Amino acid sequence: MKTNFLFVFALLAMICIVNAIPHQLHKRTTTFGPCPVLLPLVELSVTISPDPLVSGKTATFFVKGELTSPATKDFLIYVQIAGMDPPFYSKIPLGTTVNVVLEVPVPANLPADYGIQVDIVDTKTATPVACAFAVVSATTMSFKQ
Questions:
Q1: Could you give the CA distance from residue 59 to residue 81 in angstroms, rounded to a whole number?
Q2: Which stretch is the leader sequence (predicted)?
């Protein structure tokens, strides 16, 4: 009887342990979507590394897209992370195809929940041309509209 009790107790303990172990680890990724604006803008494809961003380090942004009109020397790409001031910006190649890799400094005081916005702007007319937006939170990392 004592042996049966120990066997049942050990079996229940193993079942509890197995159920407590996560079955599958879910890597959270930052997903970019269209910007929440009223203007019809070209949507950019953006991926970042590391994902999620690390405070005080440099992140690599891979930005791709097809513009409706060719970029001129007045076009700049802006990256805004968690309201950093000033935003990071860089020139983009001329033409309609955007395919750039940017090394962007991440703010040292990055909060648990923040937004990332990538814009291409015609600085001559102050007009946004293309955009991508992501919301990162402590629980999920995805685009929210």
A1: 11
A2: 1-20
Mean pLDDT of 109-116: 89
pLDDT tens by residue, 51-70: 889 999 999 999 999 998 89
What is the domain count for the chain?
1
Question: What distance in Å separates the CA atoms of residue 31 and residue 64, rounded to the nearest whole number?
Answer: 14
Q: How far apart are CA 114 and CA 107, in angstroms?
A: 11
CB atoms within 10 A of CB 65: 22
pTM strictly above 0.70: yes
| Helix runs in the chain, H state only | 2-20
Task: Give 136's contacts (C-beta < 8 A, 6+ positions apart).
Answer: 30, 52, 53, 113, 114, 115, 116
The predicted structure's pLDDT at residue 44: 92
Give the residue from 119, 31, 102 showing the smallest Cα distance to 67.
119
Distance CA 52, CA 26 (A): 13
Task: Answer yes or no: is 8 within a domain.
Answer: no
